[in-house]
Structure formats: C-alpha cells, structure tokens
UniProtKB/TrEMBL annotation:
Top-level taxonomic group: Bacteria
Gene3D superfamilies, per database record: Aspartate Aminotransferase, domain 1, Type I PLP-dependent aspartate aminotransferase-like (Major domain)
Family membership noted in the UniProt record: Belongs to the threonine aldolase family.
CDD domains linked: TA_like
Transmembrane segments: none
GO aspect biological process, one term: L-threonine catabolic process
Quaternary structure annotation from Swiss-Prot or TrEMBL: Homotetramer.
MF-aspect GO terms: L-allo-threonine aldolase activity
Protein name per UniProt: Threonine aldolase
Enzyme class, first EC level, given as a word: lyase
Keywords: Lyase, Pyridoxal phosphate
EC numbers, comma separated: 4.1.2.5
Length: 336
C-alpha cells in the first residue's frame, strides 16, 4: 500500500475545502458560454499570466494540442525540444490530429534549446520544406526553471523570423516561484501559455490556455472539434479557482520539501542527487543496490517512479515535511 506518494504532483486529492467550493459552484451550459464559474476561472488565469483571454480545457494535453492547432495548419511545423511534453508525451497528437510536423531539437545540459539550433531549424520559404510557424518551449522542464533571459532571447530570435510562440507552462507557477517573479513575467512574450491546474495546484482536473483573444477564439473552436466542449463544467472549474486562490503561494513549501529530501538523500553514497530547482528531484541509484532499494521503498509504502536506475521524487501538497522525514528514515533503514 502506498503511504508516501512521491510519484507525481498529479496524485493530489481535492481537499475538503476544495470539494466544498465545487459543491457550491454556480454553473451553466459552458458550450453556450453560460457558465459563470468557468468564465471567472478563464479570466482569473489570463489575468495572472498577463494575457487577454483564457480557455478552460479538460487536460494539459488537449490544451497544448489546441494551441498547436490554433497556431499551425496542415503542413506547418513547430520547433520543439526532444524531451518536451507536447512533442514526446502526447501520443503524437499534433501530427496525427493537426497534420503538423514537429521539428524536435536536442536540449542542452541545462534544458534549454541552443539559440543556434533553433535558428538552424527555421526553414526558408521553399517548396521543399514544411512552413516553420511556431516555437514551443516548456517551463519548468523536468523540474528545471529555465532562466527568464534565455526565454526572452529565444522569443526575440524566432519573432525576428515571423514565428509565433507557445509556452507549455504546465508548472509555470513552480517556475515563477523558483525564479522569484510573478507568473506573468515567465509568460511574457509568449502568444499562448498552457497552465495545468491538476499538478501541484491540486485540482482534480483541468488546464487553462491563455493568450491573445483571437488565438483563444480559434482554440475554442478546436477544443469543440477535439471533444472538449463541456456543459455544467463550473463544478470542475471551481476546483481550479480554489487552487489559484489557495495553492499558488504554498508551492514554495513543495520546493523546500524537495530540497529537504535532496539534502537527506545526499548523505548516502549510493545515491547521486541532482539538486532540485522546484518540486521534482532526480536521484541516480548505484546499479548494485537499485533493485533492492526500490523493493525496500515499495515494501515500506514509499512510492517513486523509476526508469533506467534514475528515480524521480516529486513533492506536492499531499506530502508535507513530516512525510519527507519519514521517507528519509525509511531510506536510512535500508542503508544501515
Ligand atoms: C502534465 C503535463 C502536461 C499534460 O497535462 P495532462 O493534464 O496530463 O494532459 C503537459 N505538459 C507538461 C509539461 C506536463 O507536465
């Protein structure tokens, strides 16, 4: 049985107060534009990110796809990182449903895409090539907060070539917290930004796509096409509003807990800890103990994800400092 769940910040359950907000939500048929709670959530999110309009969607995957399809048509392409969620982890939706060609490029060690690589990937207007339309960045990426100066330079570079920009800001509030700036500064310069409410913010479902009004209007049509037009969905949007009001400032606690975990795990020579920027911690486990160590954690109710000898520990609002200390004690018992 899982008692300390560090697999992902998506495992959070709605709190009693969030459930109360959901039960009390004012609703209407959102496909008719009648749901006041959805409208409030869309406006609130857009406001926090410094954009004109917002669109509530069931998932981050659908939000990214609606954005890519709002920017790009059939035979267009978007430049994107090899490890970016909207390229690698969304079942190829842009290509399958949008007829959009991805142009993935390798990340630098710090998670950025080298400006020279972006520049080289922009195709000239020539019938041999897909039309390069968009740069899609992600922040945070693998828990890392990309620096503001880098994003500004990347956006300026592609703007000079007439490209549009999308930010997969699933964890944009974690990025803002780590960078010590308002989220609107992380979002600045991007035409569209997708934000997840169901990660560290603790809502059970939902993402909001924000951007300029005409793009968001296009995305609204595409959302309908993708099956994401929902009815009395204010009952879910209320959870998102609650999350924005109560669970943004406390992301700093998750980051502190990730550092606490990193400090504790660093004491064991078999564990190589990458210091975390935000709430996601990567731990390489020495090959000779990896299997037994993973089994020990599992037996003691500590859940992490693990691939190729690298564990991912994610902190969130359902694992507090006490849970971190208990998990560290369980780790210590293994190495003793
Ligand atoms: C989780 C995530 C998404 C997709 O969100 P879902 O709601 O799971 O579809 C997109 N981008 C990033 C960076 C994510 O972490």
């Amino acid at each position: 049985m899982i008692r300390y769940d560090f697999r992902s910040d998506t495992v959070t359950r709605p709190s009693p107060a969030m459930r109360q907000a959901m039960a009390n939500a004012e609703v209407g048929d959102d496909v008719f534009g009648d749901d006041p709670t959805v409208k409030r959530l869309e406006e609130r999110t857009a406001g926090m990110l410094g954009k004109a309009a917002g669109l509530y969607l069931p998932s981050g995957t659908q939000s990214n796809l609606a954005a890519l399809m709002a920017h790009c048509g059939r035979g267009d392409e978007y430049i994107v990182g090899q490890m970016a969620h909207c390229y690698r982890w969304e079942a190829g939706g842009a290509a399958v449903l949008g007829s959009i060609q991805p142009q993935p490029i390798a990340h630098q060690a710090d998670g950025t895409l080298a400006l020279a690589d972006i520049q080289a990937a922009i195709k000239p207007d020539d019938p041999h090539f897909a039309r390069t339309r968009l740069l899609a960045l992600e922040n945070t990426l693998g828990g890392r907060a990309l620096p503001l100066a880098y994003m500004k330079d990347a956006v300026a570079l592609v703007r000079a070539h007439g490209l549009a920009t999308h930010l997969d800001g699933a964890r944009v509030f974690n990025a803002a917290t780590a960078l010590g700036v308002p989220a609107a500064e992380v979002a600045a310069g991007f035409d569209t930004v997708s934000v997840c409410l169901s990660k560290g913010l603790g809502a059970p479902v939902g993402s909001v796509l924000v951007g300029e009004a005409d793009l968001i209007q296009r995305a609204r049509r595409i959302r309908k096409m993708l099956g994401g037009g929902l009815r009395q969905v204010g009952i879910l949007a209320a959870a998102g509003l609650y999350a924005l009001e109560h669970n943004v400032a406390r992301l700093a606690d998750d980051h502190a807990n990730a550092r606490r975990l990193a400090d504790g795990l660093s004491a064991f020579p078999a564990l190589t800890v990458t210091p975390p920027d935000t709430n996601i911690l990567f731990v390489a486990v020495a090959a000779e103990v990896a299997e037994a160590f993973n089994a020990h954690l599992k037996e003691n109710g500590v859940a992490v994800t693990s691939t190729y000898g690298t564990q991912r520990w994610v902190t969130h609002l359902d694992v507090d400092a006490g849970a971190v200390d208990t998990a560290l004690a369980i780790v210590a018992a293994f190495f003793r």
